[in-house]
Amino acid sequence: MFPEIFLHPLESSSYNLFNPFRFYDTKGDGRVKVDQLGHCLRSLGLCPTEAQIAKLTENASERISVEQARK
């Protein structure tokens, strides 16, 4: 479900400034609010359903990391 650039951004790339996950990571802890994950994925051009988002976040607390969402 995640594009490769989202999972492994190029550290030297200016793309990191616009990485949607980092935009939604307001605390800088590598996690986003569970209720913002759908917006984050959609900003990447993905179209997850609410059911898919619910499945991705079913074991998360208030915030979720990319690694948690990938499981």
UniProtKB/TrEMBL annotation:
Annotated GO MF terms: calcium ion binding
Domain of life: Eukaryota
Name of the protein in question: EF-hand domain-containing protein
Domain (EF-hand): residue spans on this chain: 21-47
InterPro entries: EF-hand-dom_pair, EF_hand_dom
Transmembrane regions: none
